[in-house]
Design a protein that fits this description.
- The complex is a heterodimer of chains A (302) and B (125).
- With 302 residues, chain A is of the alpha+beta class.
- Chain A folds into 2 domains: 24-138, Beta Barrel (Porin), CATH 2.40.160; 167-292, no CATH class.
- Chain A has 8 helices and 12 strands.
- In chain B, strand 1 (44-49) and strand 2 (53-60) form a beta hairpin.
- Chain B is of the alpha+beta class and 125 residues long.
Amino acid sequence: MKRFTTAIIIFLILAIPSVHAWSWDSYEGKTTWDVKVTVDETRCRGNVHSYYTPLTITHKKSGADLTDLGHGPVSGTFFSNILTIPGRTIRDGSGQSALGSASVAFSPDCLSFYTKYTWRYHDSYEDCSGTTAWQGKRTDSTTCPDAFVVEAPSTPKLPLPQVMKTAAEIKALPAAEQKTEYEKILDKNPRDFQANYALAHILKDEKDYSGSVQHIDKALENKNYAETLRKERQDEVTKRLGLTQKPTSDTVRFLRSLKDNLDSVQQPMIYDFNVLKTPDTRTLYQKWTEYLSNKLKEPAIN
Amino acid sequence: MKTKILLILGIMMLIIACKGPTAENTSCDSKDCFITRANNCQDANIIVNETFGTVNYASKDCVFTKTLLSMNDTEEIRKLFEGKTLSCKYEQSKFDSRLVNTLVFGIEYCEGELKDRIVDMLAFL
């Protein structure tokens, strides 16, 4: 009887290879994902908002590098199907955010992951906390990247995600078609920085000023991208005007006057459109730069 | 001799009459005066010492022009701004007084190097 039981166990192990546990910490290669990022800023005078963004993970067995999901690229460590990303502090607009560590749980079928981590934002005006959740769906395959799990032949392939045009391809199109392409991107991800920013300038050319202002505001909600844009614009202006150093309101009286102007206004109007004052003064200044800018300053993002 | 003097006086009066309103007729001694005249699309001109420098505000035929004459700033900044102008066309009775009371507000409908420099400087705030 004992021999019979042992034989049954051995048979089961050999006959059912698909139940062999597969884990991401044994894999080397790249996978791609579509990630829904949900940010809860309700305790920071904000709201709960979500956006979709593509993600590529470079797997190095227990190590993994993730492309930018909103706070810059990160690296983590896999143990089985759990990816641990250590906490870190980043510059965020005019302040900084302390991001808590994240434990990303990957599903056994290799097709999804989920995590939620906390963060604390601090600047000279506020100190508040919130959460960010990632909900990822695999886009490069419908199976685990290993031969142990055999896909059933009858399993239908999932439709491939709609291929979006690249930024360069869109910019080569006539303005009307560019507008359509950017609107398509925003249907998928209403917070997409580049689509909002580019659309804002197209609408400004069409004299749809309120639409333009709203898309600029939306673009600048992405604090990391906004900060990148600000620095790039400063570098570009410094170089173009041949300035020996970046002017500041402490050293240049004219800048102080500009600052006083923007700080003192109670009803900020542009193009006869009332622009609500933002509590974050740096964002307020940046908004005015972008509202008044004639040219689309293309940020070197992505 | 008397006839000659009368003739010279007559010619001088004719010249003055043909010259039309003098520069003094368009100049204002307050921003309120300037805004009122500009709003009526009457020619107007005023030089004002602002905190950052001296500015010439002018309006002619419903076109407003702001010229930064001199600045109390570093040499580098003065070179960028002094002599630069911005201009904006407006409709009668719709002159935007913010154009003479502020640096930023109202300039979205204007064009000129002064506007470009102001937008450049905003990036450093």
